[in-house]
């Protein structure tokens, strides 16, 4: 890490207001638990000076303490894609900060940091970005804050960028951080800007888990060691890095979240983002090996909502009760705000206690919250240990691969099931397969956007789990056989090389379907009446469709209404019925356990970690979509009404619907070939097993190897089972 000397050239302040602050730190004593309330240090910033939109010319990274270089091993940071910090992007609410402190003279460099918006006018950042102990710079006085920042040239380039600029208005920090930099768990601060940003989606935050096993964590911000090669500006670009992280906060020295994600000065204050729900679970504050973040809520963390409440209160005037004194002398710039816990805002779900491995958080000195017993999960609602591992692996696979994987498995299973029942009709047996796969992917996207906390509270994970546990073994076994037919069409979808099926054009063209406005879904556009759960799902989705949504399917052979209708006319989970009686014929009667599959390298393409797109992961993405759809279909209507899931569903249907319908032909053709080969193989194996039993019973003595005779069931001395297996494998290898 860069030496702290970069910011120590400025003289140490001797007086701030009426009292020396940096020359003599406040003697606040040990920070003890405050029953049911939080104490915050709050002061106003100068928002009338340095208001020009241009970024400062003279800047340096701000570091806390003397921690060493925090790029660990090989530098794995990646520059963030432009679309991710532009309007609508996932990192739009990450803020580039330029900071000035009371202890700096007018010619000293501005410090650089990173922050993130938790509402449209409140930035979370590191505590040392608001009160500096390491360089004796003292309190923060000025902030220039930009979203969409991509170097100084981007600020006035409205044609190519959408930068928004604000100045800081007010700041709040924990009492513990003002007391001294040794209290590193309190290294967090909250900055209110002079006016709200527009068109942003705040970054959600959640209590930091006390433990984690291979959790995907990332740090996203503006590191000061990387520069624009053209302008030589340091910290010009936003970078990200994610890595699997195992942690136990209770075992760390300072009770902080630790990780080996690469960072650097300038990253101070960055969110520590968890995948796949993209929630922040910490604030990056310290470099080293490992790097560290201050914790959100729980027994070791900082209750964000309380500090937001303190920040938004009316500032106290000099002489009022509550204005701070240090050593009995008034510090006119500082006021204390004490916030009862029941007065905090709902914020971003940041004030609920974390759960420890044993379910009960321990009290720790310096904790601003009293211990609150963690809620014990209902035994009937406990999630299996591997459920989230399954979900994480599934979500690494792009949606198109999951949708076509679902089509492939459903189609193969349907053929095998129908042939077993002597009911196969190629013209109708695949009806709804593509639509169900599409709606499953849409439901999974909606579940992801709801976030893990809400999904747990609403019981969505609990409703997904039975489908996953029931179907996962057979889907994993069937995946390597079916997925080769999926990959090429899926890649075509992702590269926009799909030829869409078209409707008739000209005078005889059919007008695009209109959006039904009635609450009654028993209409042609949505097919026959569905069960009560599906009715509610369709009714709510229908109310939120627009004519623009409907026109997305103009020129294709379907409508958005027909897609939803066909997908839901199928009784029960499509994958469920075909997996039980169809795919089981493909993989055999004996379904391997999870341990068997994990122990067999061939089940995961010889090396399950070699690619994000293994056949196993693709089948899991398909299964996750089906499970998510079933979970939403069985969510009470009053809950569906309250949660904004429909935008995610309709956006996926609109974006991918025409492409899925246009990409399905090769998948269905492959399904037919697989089913035919599997039927022959299964018949041959059945006959071979029958002969084996007859031989053991002494009813039929076959010894072609010794006698040179051809057995009744053999063809030119070749075992039928081996012949069928070779034919089956040859069919797959030749691409049908």
Short description:
Helix 5 (399-420) packs across helix 6 and helix 6 (433-450) packs across helix 12. 34% of the residues lie in helices and 16% in strands.
Characterization of the model:
The chain is of the alpha+beta class. It folds into 2 domains: 4-343, Beta Barrel (Thrombin, subunit H); 390-507 and 572-666, no CATH class. Helices cover 34% and strands 16% of the residues. It has 19 helices and 18 strands. Strand 15 and strand 16 (291-295) form a beta hairpin. Helix 6 (433-450) crosses helix 12 (560-569). It is elongated and about 85 Å long. The relative contact order is 0.10.
Second CATH tier, the architecture of the largest domain: Beta Barrel
CATH topology of the largest domain: Thrombin, subunit H
Radius of gyration: 31 Å
Which class of secondary structure composition applies to the elements? alpha+beta
Bulk shape: elongated
The main sheet comes to:
7 strands, antiparallel
Percentage of residues in DSSP E strands:
15-25%
The spatial strand order of the largest sheet comes to: 3-12-11-14-15-16-13
Ranges where pLDDT stays below 50 over 5 or more residues in a row are 1-35, 65-73, 349-382, 421-428, 497-529, 577-613, 698-736
Our count of helices gives: 19
How many distinct folded domains? 2
Number of strands: 18
Question: Roughly how many Å apart are the termini?
Answer: 58 Å
Helix content: 25-40%
Mean pLDDT, rounded to whole units? 69
CATH hierarchy, class of the largest domain: Mainly Beta
Enzyme class: hydrolase
Protein name: Serine protease
Family: Belongs to the peptidase S1 family. Belongs to the peptidase S1B family.
Region (Disordered): 340-381, 692-736
């Amino acid at each position: 890490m860069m030496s702290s000397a970069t910011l120590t050239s400025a003289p140490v302040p001797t007086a701030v207001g009426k009292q020396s602050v940096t020359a003599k730190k406040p003697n606040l004593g040990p920070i003890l638990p405050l029953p049911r309330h939080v104490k915050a240090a709050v002061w106003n910033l100068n928002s009338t000076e340095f208001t020009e939109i241009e970024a400062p010319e003279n800047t340096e990274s701000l570091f806390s303490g003397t921690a060493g270089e925090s790029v660990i091993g090989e530098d794995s940071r990646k520059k963030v894609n432009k679309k991710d910090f532009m309007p609508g992007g996932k990192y739009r609410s990450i803020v580039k900060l330029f900071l000035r402190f009371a202890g700096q003279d007018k010619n000293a460099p501005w410090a650089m940091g990173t922050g993130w918006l938790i509402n449209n006018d409140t930035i979370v950042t590191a505590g040392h970005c608001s009160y500096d102990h390491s360089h004796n710079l003292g309190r923060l006085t000025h902030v220039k804050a930009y979203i969409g920042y991509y170097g100084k040239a981007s600020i006035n380039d409205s044609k190519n960028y959408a930068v928004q600029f604000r100045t800081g208005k007010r700041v709040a920090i924990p009492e513990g951080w003002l007391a001294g930099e040794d209290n590193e768990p309190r290294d967090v601060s909250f900055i209110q800007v002079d006016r709200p940003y527009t068109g942003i989606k705040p970054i959600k935050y959640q209590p930091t888990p006390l433990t984690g096993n291979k959790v995907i964590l990332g740090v996203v911000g503006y590191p000061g060691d990387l520069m624009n090669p053209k302008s030589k500006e340091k910290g010009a670009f936003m970078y990200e890095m994610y890595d699997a992280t195992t942690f136990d906060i209770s075992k760390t020295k300072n009770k902080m979240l630790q990780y080996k994600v690469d960072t650097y000065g300038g990253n101070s204050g960055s969110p520590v983002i968890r995948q796949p729900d993209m929630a922040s679970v910490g604030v990056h504050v310290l470099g080293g090996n490992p790097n560290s973040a201050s914790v959100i809520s729980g027994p070791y963390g900082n209750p964000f909502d309380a500090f937001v409440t303190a920040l938004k209160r009316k500032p106290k005037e000099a002489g009022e009760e509550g204005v701070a004194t240090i050593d009995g002398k008034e510090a006119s710039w500082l006021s204390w705000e004490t916030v009862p816990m029941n007065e905090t805002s709902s914020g971003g779900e940041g004030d609920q206690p974390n759960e420890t491995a044993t379910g009960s958080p321990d009290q720790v000195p310096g904790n601003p919250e009293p211990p609150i017993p963690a809620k014990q999960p209902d035994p009937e609602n406990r999630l299996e240990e591997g459920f989230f591992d399954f979900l994480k692996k599934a979500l690494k696979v792009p949606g198109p691969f999951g949708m076509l994987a679902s089509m492939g498995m459903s189609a193969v299973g349907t053929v095998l099931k129908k042939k077993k029942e002597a009911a196969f009709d190629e013209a109708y047996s695949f009806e709804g397969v593509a639509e169900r796969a599409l709606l499953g992917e849409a439901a999974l996207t909606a579940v992801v956007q709801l976030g893990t906390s809400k999904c747990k509270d609403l019981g969505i994970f609990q409703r997904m789990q039975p489908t996953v546990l029931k179907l996962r073994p057979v889907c994993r076994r069937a995946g390597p056989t079916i997925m080769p037919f999926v990959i090429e069409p899926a890649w075509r979808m992702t590269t926009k090389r799909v030829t869409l099926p078209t409707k008739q054009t000209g005078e005889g063209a059919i007008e695009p379907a209109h959006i039904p406005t009635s609450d009654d879904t028993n209409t042609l556009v949505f097919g026959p009446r569905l069960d009560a759960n599906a009715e509610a799902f369709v009714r709510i989705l229908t109310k939120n469709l627009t004519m623009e949504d409907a026109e997305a399917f103009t020129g294709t052979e379907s409508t958005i209404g027909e897609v939803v209708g066909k997908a839901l006319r199928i009784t029960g989970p499509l994958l469920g019925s075909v997996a039980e009686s169809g795919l089981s014929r493909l993989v055999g009667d004996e379904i391997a356990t999870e341990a068997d599959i994990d122990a067999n390298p061939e089940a995961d393409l010889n090396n399950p970690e070699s690619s994000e797109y293994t056949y196993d992961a693709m089948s899991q993405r398909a299964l996750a979509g089906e499970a998510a759809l079933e979970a939403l279909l069985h969510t009470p209507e009053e809950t569906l009404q309250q949660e904004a899931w429909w935008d995610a569903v309709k956006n996926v249907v609109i974006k991918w619907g025409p492409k899925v319908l246009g990409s399905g032909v090769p998948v269905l053709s492959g399904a037919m070939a697989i089913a035919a080969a599997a039927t022959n193989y299964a018949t041959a194996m059945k006959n071979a097993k029958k002969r084996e039993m007859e031989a053991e019973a002494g009813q039929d003595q076959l010894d072609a190897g010794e006698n040179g005779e051809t057995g009744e069931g053999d063809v030119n001395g070749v075992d039928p089972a081996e012949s069928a297996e070779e034919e089956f494998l040859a069919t797959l290898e030749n691409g049908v």
